[in-house]
Amino acid sequence: MNRKQRKIYYPIILFIGLLLMIWQIILFRNTIIDYRILIVIVGLTGIIAFLIDFKNYRKTYNEYGKVTLKFYAVFQYVFSYGFIACSIFILLNFYLAKEIKVTKLYKIISRSSLPGRKYHRTERKPTFIIYYNGFRKELVFSNDYYEKMNFYNKIDFEVQKGFLGFDIIKKKH
After folding, report:
1. N or C: which end of the chain has fewer CB within 10 A?
2. What own/partner pairs with CB < 8 Å and gap ≥ 24 does 120-128 have?
3. Distance CA 107, CA 90 (A)
């Protein structure tokens, strides 16, 4: 790949990584997994990509200083290759899950809320924190539950075992 092609390739792969990360956040909210595992996947993949491809990156963007170039390269590799690898991990676990579903009931430990999307900030989404097998998990619900969120004290949901062993929440009430 020549310099001109790489100047197109790097921004495209960064854009793909960021798009996949947005999708991954949605799936992460319905997966019982420690976020530190995902951080390790993103970090390790970014470091490995940096070690493998930095020579090409330096040839492509040689107009920057050494420190700035390394900073941009680490940013590029973590946010593109790291996010892509992490998304593949979550997507494999989520979409290749086993068919067996189990219904579970958990006590709500604490509650809070998130603002709604742009232009709908007042449509707050309630979040409930539970302990799922010794693991703290925050569950986000639609804004339909916000008005009565203080009346709820238990959450009932269907769990499915993911392909890579991490549980997936299919339905929550």
Report:
1. N
2. 128/152, 128/155
3. 26
Instruction: Strands of 17-141 (E only): list them.
Output: 101-114, 125-132, 135-140
Q: Which two tokens stand for residue 79?
A: 């946010």
What are the 10-residue block averages of pLDDT along the chain, 173 residues in total?
88 93 87 90 95 90 83 92 94 89 86 80 83 84 79 86 89 75
Is residue 77 within 8 A of residue 86, CB to CB? The reply is: no
Virtual torsion, Cα 74, 79, 80, 84, nearest 10 deg: 130
Residues 127, 57: Cα–Cα separation, whole Å: 42
Strand order in the sheet with 167-172: 135-140, 125-132, 101-114, 154-161, 167-172
